[in-house]
Amino acid sequence: MANYKTQNVTETEKIGFLLGNTVKDGTVVAMFGDLGAGKTAFTRGFAKGMDIDCDVSSPTFALVNEYRGVKRTLYHFDMYRISGWDDLYSTGYFDYLDAGGCLIIEWSENIEAILPEDCIRVTITKTDDFNERNIEIIGAELIEDTCG
Ligand code: ADP
Ligand code: MG
């Protein structure tokens, strides 16, 4: 487990980048944190770290966005409005899991019981300092030297 403090959106994207840079196919990243915490910002960096050059935005209405890179694809979920099995099946969550894709999931709080046991957990919280965020990562190591 490791904690990182960021002071702006660029720094949060950078932590996301470093994680995206390390993950293998089939990795599931479960993100926790309130509205405006920085989950989508983190995902933007994460996709870049996977070498995917796509516009990343919150899939709040789409429920899932698909970002295709040259080699790999990232599925970006927003589980905010998930309220039952039907919703969940309609997102394709289980299909993507079975297919071994990389998944990153906003509002994992809402699907806690069905997260893979070996998922990486990223929790972003606001601190008392203006614009500061605490990013806790469980289940993966970043190379701290390159965090700047
Ligand atoms: P979420 O997806 O968790 O709802 P977003 O990534 O969409 O959050 O938005 C985060 C908002 O917080 C952005 O408006 C961003 O500019 C702002 N912000 C301020 N400080 C930070 C920080 N340290 N890290 C990330 N975002 C920050
Ligand atoms: Mg978001």
Structure class: alpha/beta
Report, as a whole number of angstroms, the end-to-end distance. Answer: 19 Å
- Spell out which ligands are present: adenosine-5'-diphosphate, magnesium ion
Stretches where pLDDT falls below 50 for ≥5 residues?
A: none
The backbone outline, from C-alpha atoms, is globular
- Helical segment count: 4
Number of beta strands: 7
Radius of gyration, rounded?
14 Å
Strand line-up across the major sheet: 1-7-6-2-5-4-3
Order of helices and strands: EHEHEEHHEEE
Helix content: 10-25%
**Percent strand:** 25-35%
The major pleated sheet works out as: 7 strands, mixed
Kindly report the average pLDDT value.
92
Keywords:
seven-stranded mixed β-sheet; 4 helices; 7 strands; 26% strand; binds adenosine-5'-diphosphate
Please describe what this structure looks like.
With 148 residues, the protein is of the alpha/beta class. The chain is 24% helix and 26% strand. The protein is built from four helices and seven strands. It has helices at 9-20, 39-49, 85-91, 93-98, and strands at residues 2-6, 28-32, 64-68, 73-78, 102-106, 120-126, 133-138. Strands 1-7-6-2-5-4-3 form a seven-stranded mixed β-sheet. A hairpin with a 4-residue loop joins β3 and β4. α1 packs across α2. It starts with a strand and ends in a 10-residue tail after the last strand. The mean pLDDT is 92. Adenosine-5'-diphosphate binds at residues 6-9, 11-12, 33, 35-41, 58, 106, 131, 133. Magnesium ion (MG) binds next to α2.
